Amino acid sequence: MKQAAPAKINLYLHITGRRPDGFHELETLMVPISLGDTLELELIPAGIEFTCSDPALADAKDNLATKAARLFLEEFAVAAGVRIHLEKAVPVGAGLGGGSSDAAAVLLALRKLTSTPADDVRLAGLAAQLGSDVPFFIYNRPAICSGRGEIIEPVELRESYQGLLVHPGFGVSTPWAYKTYAQNPGPGEVGRIFADFTMRNDLELPAFSKYAWLPVAKTWFREQPETLDALMSGSGSSVFALTASRAASDALQEKFHAEFGAGLFSKPFQVITA
Q: Which residues of 9-24 are buried (b: 16+ CB within 10 A; e: fewer)?
């Protein structure tokens, strides 16, 4: 069976403190978007087999997707194995939750394939063992995420949102971003106020201090008439611009490639609300 694994963006990300376990306490509005990976899964007699369309990931036999499969099969004592093929569309190390979404997609698909009577709450509990962002993708709708990101409160957005997502071709390490933030903590730049949020990402501070392309791209976006506002997603390295329409996103994409080069990744997107 096929299972979609949408990417996410953070419409805001506030770091609110440091936890006793060493992680940072945060509050963030995460939303799934129309860009995503696709997984194909089928049950096999035993074992876990994994292939990927991205050669760089094809040999990563112990990734989040296979860990999710192993956890599910052990948790529910499933007397079978699974073959997984991942069609990769989401850039790696981009602040888009691609690996976390792939892991959640495996849990959701295996629940269907094995007819396991596990509700979303139980599945999200399993997901939390795999990573802070993974539970969000079990619910797969806009949500305010707190704690380390594993506490999920789904929300109804009052407006529809779309825009253009770009990626520079390099990643930003999430542990590095949080560690660097801790050395010089402070709020990120406050952006435009929308009906559902005010744009701000506290992790822009460390990322922008090391990777000069990111503030250049954000500033350029904000100077374009098609852009309502722009922000880095998660710990980077993706930057997105919100626009008033798909036509504005398409026009902005054309201008982006003329300015930054045709080879860079860009994708118009729509926020998934349900």
A: bbbbbbbeeeeeeeeb
- Give the pLDDT of residue 25: 87
| Residue of 37, 67, 102, 133 marked catalytic | 133
C-beta atoms surrounding 51 within 10 Å? 12
pLDDT in tens, 78-104: 999 999 999 999 999 899 999 999 999
Evaluate whether 22 touches 6 at the Cβ level (below 8 Å).
Answer: no
Annotated catalytic, 8?
A: yes
Pull the structure tokens for residue 88.
């990769």
**The dihedral formed by the CA atoms of 85, 91, 97 and 101, expressed in degrees to the nearest 10:** -20
Instruction: State the catalytic residue, choosing from 8, 67, 88, 218.
Output: 8
Phi, psi (degrees; rounded to nearest 5) at 195: -65, -30
Give the DSSP letter string of 141-152.
S-EEEEETTTEE
Domains and CATH numbers, the chain: 2-154 (3.30.230.10), 162-270 (3.30.70.890)
In angstroms and rounded to an integer, the radius of gyration of the C-alpha atoms of the chain is 19
- Average confidence (pLDDT) over 149-164: 94
Q: Which of 32, 174, 36, 24 is nearest to 94 (CA)?
A: 174
Question: Cα 99 from chain centroid?
Answer: 8
pLDDT tens column, 102-139: 999 999 999 999 999 999 999 999 999 999 899 999 99
